[in-house]
Amino acid sequence: MTATNTAAQQLTAGPEPTTPRTRRRNRTWLAFVLPFLVPFTLFYVVPIVYAIWQSLFKTQRTGGLFGESHQVFAGLEQYANVLGDDTFRQGVLRVLLFGVVQVPAMLLLALLIALVLDSAVARLRRFFRIAFFVPYGIPGVIAALMWAFLYSPQLSPVVDLLNKVGTAPDFLGANLILWSIANVVTWTYTGYNMLIIFSALQALPQEVYEAARVDGAGALRTAWSIKIPMVRPALVLTAVFSIIGTLQLFTEPVVFQAISTNVTSGYTPNMQAYAVAAANNYPFSAALSVMLALATFILSFGFLRLTQRRAAA
Amino acid sequence: MSAPAIQRPAPTTAAPRRGRGPREASRVSVAVAVVFLVALAVYFLLPVYWLVVNSTKTQGDLVSSNGFWFAHFALLDNLKHLFTRDGGVFLRWALNSLLYAGLGAAVGTLLATMAGYGLAKYTFRGREALFSVILGGVLVPATALALPLFLLFARAHQTNTFWSVFLPSIVSPFGVYLSRIFAAASVPDEVVEAARIDGAGEMRIFFTIASRLMAPAMVTIFLFQFVAIWNNFLLPRVMLSDQQLYPLTFGLYSWQTQIARDPALQTLVIVGSLVSVLPLIIVFLSLQRFWQSGLSAGSIK
What we know:
Chain B: Belongs to the binding-protein-dependent transport system permease family. The complex is a heterodimer. Chain A is mainly alpha-helical. Chain A contains 15 helices and two strands. Chain A has a domain of 172 residues: MetI-like fold, CATH 1.10.3720. In chain A, a hairpin with a 7-residue loop joins strand 1 and strand 2. In chain A, helix 3 packs across helix 15, helix 4 crosses helix 15 and helix 7 packs across helix 13. Chain A is globular. Chain B is mostly helical. Chain B has two domains: 47 residues, no CATH class; 218 residues, MetI-like (MetI-like fold). In chain B, 74% of the residues lie in helices and 0% in strands. Chain B is globular, with a radius of gyration of 25 Å. Chain B starts with 21 loop residues before the first helix and ends with a helix. Classes of the chains: A mainly alpha, B mainly alpha. Chains A and B meet through helix 1, helix 2, helix 3, helix 5 and helix 6 of A and helix 2, helix 4, helix 5, helix 6 and helix 8 of B.
């Protein structure tokens, strides 16, 4: 079967060209596209350009410690500063470690649920699909607040229970906090990813399964050789969104900052960018944001390329 | 789309084999599947259950009673405190959230659908380049935008205003992507052409014909943008300092950070979370039929 039609191609390949008759209505498209394009330019393009511009400066004080500060052009100095910054490097490593574990774990779980639901009895399907999707409707702040309560030694029935069985791990301790955050993210987004994969599974033509059954393929074999390859585009899509989400990691650790000293103000690159901006060092913060956006681009496009090449091979 | 995502194999004419049908063979695997699904349902629903149970407790019971079961029922008291605290600021936050997310998603959906339709139904020079730039917007982390947006709004002396949170929220590049795919697939050129021959203007064709055909995509875009704005945390945190302008999530967070000083806020954060979560879940469940078809169009077509 051909599995070359990856999400990358969907993203770049446009719809069918319209008929020559529509082509004559030359300027009409503007009336449709412009209302979107204006705010898009103002609130997407301009901020990016502005951040790049800002990142090329540095703050300089004249007349000693209490003198006025002003911005002077510094070229790429801020980027060198960001790369040389220990907090930044640790934050990046932390987020990468987080992503390498959390994203595959979450997507595997989502795929597994989707496959089970797809082959389960229809009556069960409806209830479970909804149950698993509920966390997605819960704002990240509130999800983190709820889990913070469930992790906290004083309040949590889960910790109580674990203490009765043996000893409860310190969910907010230095060793576990990153994975406690990973659990909140997994809890929130597994259902969403599951639903995208499930929708793709449901859209597969029934004849494929019949053909597989005639060929003597069992349920596992059908899942492995037919269903998974056919929902590849959906998997790639969810993976790209997860990669973007991981690099953006902000809300959950910020909430945990209030209850655990193990989450510092520079815990993730995003938190650092915020903290640095709050301390009025805008150029450094801008350079950090630009590098983060760049890293997101490189990683998600790199991933798309990689999966595309594999599919073509 | 020009090419179908999946090559349909020719339908088989062979009848399914008798005897070892899938249901009979898999009685054990059905049991395993059910156990697996139930265990996961417990995991996914446990925090929500915890939230419901503990919303009904007094501050004292919150600490001392079993966290998975009810104690003295104080839900109504908690609700009363929630809505009267700080001069009823919670209700104000709820209305703010509704405005930011409801109005923002409505405007955003309209803009995205029009743009997607325009990109699907009109050919013009630079169309693919423009589409690529918009798609690039999907990949830009919203958080990378928030700080420069703050600086820009600061230059215009517009930080700490309703507009500083509202305006950036109406842009949905993903909505344009989804509606372009959907418009290409579900609005036939012949219908558009027929309406033109009947003398309908381009805008009228969009609003009376195309927008109806694109309804599932519009519901999907609206819901997902609604959730994105409702859940947004960084932008309000960066832009707003006036408590009266906070959305729900950020307001609850601000209470959470004051718990050390005022432990009574703990109950309010819990019951406030419950109150702010329920409407969203209800909206999602009641519109399920619509957004799921839109979602599947975006993921595999």
